[in-house]
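[recover] target loaded
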């Protein structure tokens, strides 16, 4: 395979005039509000990125894709692209009916004729497509916990592209890229897929790959959905823009791909290849553990490190792009350059340097030096802006314990101590304050308590995201709700659970508000510790015993914990 045929590929959009008309007509149709992943899928269906698909998979296509990576007509396609919906929505439809597909603001992007409706066997899909029915895999977790229970299939008619307000100049449809390559005379193009910031080793390996393939280079980062916990795409794109300038003039370009990754390893690599073929590329770099999802629930890798390369190689003729294997590049100090690890002959006589992803995160977190040989100063400064050291990041201290355990008093003391130190804004979300300002309509049923705590968690996560300190002090009696709040907050910063472990007997003896007496008399129902349960935290970051310790000392214990975690400078 030498050159790509750069003729336009089919899109699913109707003409501008028809789109205007269809949009008006579609307003009367039953409509489905697409979630973020479905919007990504729809965009690539409509613009030809998922060519030859003409819509969301029919049941026969789905079965073929799941079983043997082939559509019903035999064409290679490794990833199920389904419109998953709720049972309620699916039941209200008749087969053959058209529905409108709307974005999250209600804009109609497309219509779809529903030809198929079925309830998938998700466990089978997980096993066959992702290799295991294990929710440690992000796509399997999505399948079981986010995706609707019914799949709809049928052809899509595109009305308009999803709107993007960010980096508009760097987003290209497959046909726009094909036109660009035609204009530039680029007949051989090697694509580099990435969801991480690029450092010097990546720049070196991509440039070598291009030289090896005698091709130009397309840096083609995913900006749709990547692996939870990845560096956000805004930061990454600013980093890529800095790196693009480091390539020799007119060899390399960058374009952003609004793909929702599944982290499906080998199958995902084949899928990525097909998408790049649609975007006019002739070569594709496949790395070690390409699109790897991390460890499974037993702590092992989901896929072998070279499974993706093996599967890609097997199908590369059908994919229509040639694989360039990724070289593991390391820095050779004596020669002050990057070299492929397996080509270094004098390994024992030279100093080989490398910084792993984990080590990089540690250095960023602790504000340590990141050497020039490893990355570009512009990239490091972008990363430092979004990932400041822990002592400058936001965090949440979450007190939990019985009514009258001393949560509010210790939380107040902690707030004052943190304000004395200065540096970050501090907000106290005390149980009573929250019930007055955020949750005044709620009572104390399990449902209402959960809602109350989730609201606290939402506000705390926003404060944490914006670099502040949130101190929460509700009873928060249920472990599952506390875990959910932890997850919300940990997406942005540290979560420190502090169990104020005053016994129920002591709280009742103190009875500062006289509520225990009323609870014993049955005048207050569902009272925590008396007539409602409290799940004792099993592994809080800190447990404080208040009996025999004064408030100042309890608050100081929290400060020491924060220092130990690197959240406040000692
Ligand atoms: S929860 O369970 O986390 O939603 O509770 P929280 O928002 O912290 O509110 C607890 C305060 O409400 C008063 N109160 C009760 N507590 C527990 N159970 C019942 N049934 C109840 N009814 C009223 C009580 O004063 C709690 O205040 P604190 O500050 O914890 O003493």
């Amino acid at each position: 395979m030498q050159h790509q045929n750069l003729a336009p590929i089919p899109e699913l959009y109707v003409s501008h005039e028809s789109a205007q008309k269809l949009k008006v007509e579609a307003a009367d149709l039953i409509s489905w509000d697409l979630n973020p992943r479905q919007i990504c899928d729809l965009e690539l269906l409509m613009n030809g990125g998922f060519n030859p698909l003409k819509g969301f998979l029919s049941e026969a296509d789905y079965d073929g894709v799941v079983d043997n990576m082939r559509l019903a007509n035999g064409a290679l396609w490794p990833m199920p692209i389904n419109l998953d919906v709720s049972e309620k929505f699916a039941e209200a439809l008749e087969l053959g009916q058209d529905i409108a597909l709307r974005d999250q603001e209600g804009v109609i992007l497309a219509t779809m004729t529903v030809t198929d409706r079925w309830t998938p066997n998700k466990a089978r899909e997980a096993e066959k497509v992702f290799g295991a029915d294990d929710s440690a895999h992000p796509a399997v977790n999505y399948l079981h916990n986010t995706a609707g229970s019914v799949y709809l299939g049928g052809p899509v008619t595109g009305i308009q592209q999803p709107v993007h307000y960010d980096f508009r100049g760097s987003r290209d449809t497959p046909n726009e890229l094909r036109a660009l390559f035609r204009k530039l005379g680029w007949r051989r193009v090697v694509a580099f897929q990435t969801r991480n910031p690029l450092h010097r080793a990546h720049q070196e390996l991509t440039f070598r790959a291009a030289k090896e393939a005698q091709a130009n280079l397309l840096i083609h980062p995913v900006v749709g959905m990547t692996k939870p916990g990845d560096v956000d795409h805004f930061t990454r794109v600013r980093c890529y823009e800095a790196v693009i300038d480091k390539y020799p003039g007119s060899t390399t370009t960058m374009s952003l791909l609004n793909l929702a990754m599944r982290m499906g390893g080998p199958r995902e690599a084949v899928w990525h290849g097909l998408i790049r073929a649609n975007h006019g590329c002739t070569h594709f770099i496949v790395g070690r553990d390409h699109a790897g999802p991390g460890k499974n629930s037993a702590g092992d890798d989901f896929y072998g490190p070279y499974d993706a390369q093996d599967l890609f190689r097997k199908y590369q003729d059908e994919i229509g792009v040639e694989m360039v294997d990724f070289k593991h590049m390391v820095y050779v100090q004596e020669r002050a350059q990057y070299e492929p690890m397996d080509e270094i002959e004098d390994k024992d006589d030279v100093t080989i340097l490398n910084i792993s992803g984990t080590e990089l995160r540690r250095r960023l977190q602790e504000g340590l030096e990141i050497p020039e040989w490893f990355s570009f100063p512009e990239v490091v400064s972008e990363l430092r802006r979004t990932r400041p050291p822990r002592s400058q990041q936001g965090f949440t201290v979450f007190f939990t314990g019985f009514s009258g355990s001393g949560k509010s008093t210790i939380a107040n003391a902690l707030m004052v101590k943190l304000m004395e130190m200065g540096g970050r804004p501090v907000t106290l979300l005390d149980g009573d304050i929250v019930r007055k300002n955020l949750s005044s309509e709620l009572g104390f049923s399990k449902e209402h308590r959960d809602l109350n705590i989730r609201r606290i968690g939402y506000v705390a996560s926003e404060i944490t995201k914006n670099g502040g300190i949130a101190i929460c002090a509700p009873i928060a009696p249920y472990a599952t709700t506390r875990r959910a709040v932890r997850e919300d907050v940990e997406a942005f910063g540290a979560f420190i659970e502090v169990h104020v472990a005053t016994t129920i007997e002591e709280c009742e003896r103190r009875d500062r508000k006289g509520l225990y007496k009323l609870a014993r008399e049955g005048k207050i129902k569902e009272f925590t510790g008396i007539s409602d349960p409290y799940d004792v935290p099993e592994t809080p970051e800190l447990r404080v015993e208040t009996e025999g310790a004064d408030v100042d000392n309890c608050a100081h214990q929290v400060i020491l914990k924060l220092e130990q975690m690197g959240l406040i400078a000692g």
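[recover] notes: The two ends are 61 Å apart (CA to CA).
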